[in-house]
Amino acid sequence: MNCPFCNYDNMSGAATCDDCSMDLTDLDLPRPSSAIEASIMESSLAALHPKSPVIVPPEATVAEVIRILCEQHIGCVLVGSKDKVVGIFSERDALNRLTDRYSERASLPISQFMTAHPEQLDLGAPIAFALDRMSIGSFRHLPITRYGRLEGIISTRDILRFLSESYPDLIPPKS
Amino acid sequence: MKLHAILKNETVADVGYFKPVKVQEGKNMRAAVKRMRKGKSGCLLILKGRKLTGIFTERDFLTRILLTEEDLDLPVANFMTPNPTVARIDEPIYRVLARMYAGGMRHLPVLGKRGRPIGTISVGQVAYFLADLHPTMVYNLPPDHARYPSAREGG
To answer: Average pLDDT over chain A, rounded to whole?
Structure first.
């Protein structure tokens, strides 16, 4: 049984991960029987096709980041590098931390305004796990790792797309 | 209940929505942003009296205010999206999601039975509902009879 956080291969039935001591009890719960119920709960995050994230160095300026968010039509950027993500900066952070002092803060480094140490999940984790993390933390974006290395990013929008792919009769695909 | 049936049968009222964070359209942008921060909402409803006239989101703040360095003393009506797409309280959730998906929107204002804005619903809110639902789905599954012993223990 692989740990959804660090992907360490634990003995089946282990209550906590031997490597990162993450609670694994949920993973031993009974499995759903129908294929449809199984789809959203058990499919791994890979089914959401995490997009490759836009990464900026910590010293990038606020103005640069705002321009990237607007021009590339994205809701957040990751700060750091593929090997080490040190923070995340989203539209929400712009609203909360920049508002009326934008002009004086535009040339400051983004590392002063980002949210440090964002929560990350392994690509092998079930989608239900991501929904749960996102709703508890009330964030919209979740960086996805594979063997501890950044692999992509998922957003609530990807979840909507996944629902549409699963039930095209209810939520028609985009034309 | 299967997810398909849940999406089809549950209404906006069942799934739940946030209390509206709203402001009158004459107020200036500074007051509007303050309201959004305080209300911890990504979406501000703009009203004229008790009627919904527009919507202003975090994204709008980024593209229409920050990027162009607009004057925050201007009225919010100058920057809002007028006549927004809405969700009705008694509408099944799949229709709301379909509309959000088609339009690329994250939030929709929720209108009550008499057409007054009573809240906002977001994709995140629905994700929360689905995540909340998932343990119940798991715990309520029938036991796996293949795992039961065929004879009484010790008998």
So the answer is: 85
In CATH, the architecture of A31-166 is: Roll (3.10)
Picking from A21, A26, A7, the residue whose alpha carbon sits closest to that of residue B131 is A26
ipTM of the complex: 0.78
**Residues A11, A124: Cα–Cα separation, whole Å:** 17
- CATH architecture classification, B3-140: Roll (3.10)
How far is residue A128's CA from residue B132's CA, in Å, rounded to a whole number?
9
User: Quick check: B37 and A167 CB within 8 A?
Assistant: no
pLDDT single digits (tens) B136-154: 444 444 444 445 556 676 6
What residues does each domain of chain B span?
A: 3-140
A28 band by pLDDT with thresholds 50, 70 and 90: low
Radius of gyration of chain B from Cα atoms? 21
B9–A contact, CB cutoff 8 A: no
Torsion of CA B15, B18, B23, B24, to 10 degrees: 30
- Quick check: A76 contacting B, CB < 8 Å? no
Identify the bridge partners of residue B11 per DSSP, sorted by sequence position.
B92
* pLDDT given at position A23: 79
The residue among A56, A49, A57 whose CA lies nearest residue A123 is A49
**Which positions ≥6 away from B93 have C-beta within 8 Å?**
B6, B7, B10, B11, B12, B14, B15, B126
Q: What is the dihedral of CA A126, B9, B93, A46, to 10 degrees?
A: 20
CB contact (8 A) between residue A134 and residue B63: no
In this predicted structure, what is the pLDDT of residue B143? 47
* A133/chain B closest Cα distance in angstroms: 9
- Rounded to the nearest angstrom, the minimum Cα separation between A37 and chain B is 6
